[in-house]
Write a structure and sequence with these properties.
It contains 1 helix and 17 strands. The protein is mainly beta.
Length: 228
């Protein structure tokens, strides 16, 4: 009887070890393009691609100024289980330091996690304008942009359809510090629109999705804006 019980315990123990090893082996991410960063005029575009994901849950984007203390800046939902190539992108609107470290924290469905390699971006373009926040990328009425200006300047922006047809063009004086822009979209048909922001040589393109029907609102951004 003792021998049988011991064998039974050994079988249970072996099964648990096998289960743990199997669970660990089937939680992984294979990259076809590792995390990369591209400096744009008003921020940093982060990109990566995967060819296989097994039991993945989240990608947590982290940044650091010194390469030691990292902060979470975004969370993207992973594919779960996939053998197709998956594209991931995140635009860091707050990157204004001379040097920024980036990495991905890979979170799996079982709660475990790991880290990608760390990349370093040394900025060459001095930003005078940086986008702080946008209210949403799907707009029914007003599209709101909050940005920071390092100096008092003038911002020019245009709104076009996805086919390049110009909807309107405006210029706005910016004060040093925080500024708000409100672009009414209720009068336009549903679809994809491109908003080009330009301050001197700095340019940034934002893409938004207009939802809901046109309502015939005034073709004005705000009372402070001057038609260009």
């Amino acid at each position: 009887m003792t021998t049988t019980l011991n064998k039974g315990k050994e079988l249970v123990f072996s099964f648990l070890i096998l289960s743990l090893l199997t669970s660990s082996a089937f939680a992984e991410i294979t990259y076809s393009k590792k995390l990369s960063a591209e400096e744009l005029e008003m921020g940093v575009l982060l990109e990566w691609k995967t060819t296989q994901e097994v039991n993945s849950h989240l990608f947590v984007v982290e940044s650091s100024e010194d390469g030691t203390s990292f902060n979470e800046i975004a969370t993207l939902l992973a594919a779960g289980t996939s053998e197709e190539e998956m594209d991931y992108r995140f635009f860091d609107l707050h990157a204004d330091g001379e040097k920024t470290f980036y990495r991905l924290r890979e979170v799996y469905q079982d709660g475990s996690s790991g880290f990608s390699h760390t990349i370093i971006l040394s900025r060459a373009i001095p930003n005078r304008i940086s986008i702080i926040n946008i209210n949403t990328s799907e707009v029914e009425n007003d599209f709101l942009i909050t940005l920071n200006a390092k100096v008092a300047t003038k911002l020019h922006y245009t709104v076009s359809t996805q086919f390049g047809d110009l909807v309107y063009s405006y210029s706005q004086d910016l004060q040093e510090g925080t500024n708000s822009i409100s672009i009414p979209m209720s009068q336009y048909e549903e679809g994809i629109y491109k908003i080009l922001l330009q301050e001197g040589k700095e340019k940034e393109m934002l893409v938004i999705h207009k939802i809901g029907k046109a309502q015939g609102a005034e073709n004005m951004a705000t009372s402070k804006k001057i038609k260009h």
